[in-house]
Amino acid sequence: MSEIHSALAENFSITQGGPMHRLLVRLGNAGDERQRVVRRALAVAIITWVPLLILSLIQGQAYGKHITIPFLRDYAANVRLLLAVPILILAESAVDKRWRITVHEFVRTGLVTAKELPAFETVIEKTMRLRDRILPEAIMIVAAFLPLIITRTEFLMSDLSNWHYTAPGEISMAGWYFNLVSTPLVRLLLLRWLWRMILWTLLLWRVSKINLYLVATHTDMAAGLGFLSEAQKAFATIVFACGAIVAGQVGNTIAYQGATLSTQKFPMIAYGVLAIFFLVAPLFVVTPLLIKTKRKALWDYGAVVTIHNQQFDRKWVKNERSPDEILLGNPDASSLEDLGGAFTVVREMSIVPIDKPTLITLALAAALPMLPVVFIATPTNELIRLVLKMLG
Questions:
Q1: Which residues of the chain have pLDDT under 50?
Q2: What is the pLDDT of residue 383?
Q3: What pLDDT shows up at residue 374?
Q4: Which secondary-structure segment (H or E) carries 170?
Q5: What is d(CA 287, CA 377) in angstroms, rounded to the nearest whole number?
Q6: Is 165 helix (H, G, I), strand (E, B) or coil?
Q7: pTM listed for this prediction
Q8: What is the pLDDT of residue 110?
Q9: Is 242 left (phi over 0), alpha (psi -120 to 50) or beta?
Q10: In Å, what is the CA distance from 186 to each residue of 77, 86, 178, 182, 350?
Q11: CA dist., res. 199 & res. 282, Å (int)
Q12: Disulfide check for 248: which of 79, 126, 142, 239 has CB 3.0–4.6 Å away?
């Protein structure tokens, strides 16, 4: 079989498109080159965090004990702007590269045949046209600023005195900047990742509708679609960044509102569960195809195994064979074992192309940002006792 090629698949990208990307191109900051990606991440971190530091210093709210939560001791704000925001931007090139490899894998592995290549490329074109539309990004911008119309306060802040206010009801300069610039930019970054996940899900769903050359006996236990699980691992960085946002807020709640680790277990565990489900959910769109493939294979391979077993029974059990034939080393026995093994693979085939290593990777990415909170909230003597117990 001659190898087929697709320029569209080889150059596929979900992040390099849309009005915001075109603006970055004009500014000379677009591209996957490490230097440009780092420059973008640094620029957004500076825009969202440095003015807050300057403004809070001017109004005496950056540090000190005259307010409960000064700016430099606000775990939620600092972790969000100095850690999560850069990660959300730095992750773009890695995730986009993994998506490109995954899309090309459909062609490289022969899942998309020459006959189905035009339909496959049509799916890619539709996805990229949707990526480039103005309306989705316009909606994201509106959604990022919409909370300002509903409330002027940051929803993650408590009622304790903090750097957001100079007096009750009077928002500080840093508070205004946080509400008008920093927070909407963070929301926009998160919404863009949500949009990209929707685009990725749509692409997988449309690809599942074309006639893919799936083989139920594939050893990846997903009829040849096992590589989709590997693609989801790239989102571990996004899970980590969002987990850092949650951990920062939990840290504030414990440090300043008297909460304990036991009372905050639910939001931490809930985030881990929801994050894993959200990132595995796109793979469920190919489940109907895998169910159909598995059901057909069970019938087809079941029939072949039955016929072969009947022939083996007549020949070797009922002695309907020539006298000079011996069972030892006979290919009949070998083929019986091979067919049985193939049928077992079909029967154990997964209907969701996700494997344990991917789930573990995503779970660890969700849990890691929570570890500092656990250490801070746990008394020193308990930590020492726990460490000694582990070493013993």
A1: 1, 155-156, 328-329
A2: 58
A3: 83
A4: strand 170-171
A5: 42
A6: strand
A7: 0.86
A8: 92
A9: alpha
A10: 11, 10, 10, 6, 37
A11: 10
A12: 79
The Cβ of residue 22 has, within 10 Å, a number of other Cβ atoms equal to: 14
DSSP reduced 3-state for 166:
strand
SS3 labels along 300-315 = HHHHHHHHHHHHHHHH
Q: Which two tokens stand for residue 116?
A: 């189905």
**Residue 269 token pair:** 């565990």
Q: How far out from the chain centre does Cα 155 lie?
A: 25
- Using alpha carbons, list the distances in angstroms from residue 31 to 36, 127, 169: 7, 20, 44
Contact at 8 Å (CB) between 137 and 20? yes
Q: Considering Cα of 157, then 161, then 165, then 169, what sign does the dihedral take? A: positive
Structure tokens belonging to residue 283: 């793979």
Task: Please name the residues in contact with 170: beta carbons below 8 A apart, sequence gap of 6 or more.
Answer: none
Looking at residue 156, its pLDDT comes to 47
The two structure tokens encoding residue 101: 């490899």
CB contact at 8 A, 228 and 204: yes
Between strands 170-171 and 165-167, the pairing is: antiparallel
| Amino acid identity, position 242 | C
pLDDT by residue (tens digit) across 8-57?
Answer: 999 999 888 888 878 877 777 666 667 788 888 999 999 999 999 999 99
Question: CA–CA separation, 148 vs 177, rounded Å?
Answer: 12
Q: Which long-range contacts (CB under 8 A, 24 or more apart) does 347-350 make?
A: 347/298, 348/221, 349/216, 349/221, 349/222, 349/223, 349/290, 349/293, 349/294, 349/297, 350/221, 350/222, 350/290
Alpha helices in the chain (DSSP H): 7-10, 19-27, 34-58, 75-79, 85-108, 117-131, 134-150, 173-177, 183-207, 227-232, 236-257, 265-280, 287-312, 331-348, 356-367, 371-377, 380-391
Provide the token pair at 275.
């994050």
String of DSSP letters for 264-325:
THHHHHHHHHHHHHHHHGGGGGGHHHHHHHHHHHHHHHHHHHHHHHHHHIIIIIS--S-TT-
For 53, residues 6+ apart whose C-beta sits below 8 A from its C-beta are 62, 71, 72
b (16+ CB within 10 A) / e for 282-307: bbbbbeebbeebbeebeeebeeebee
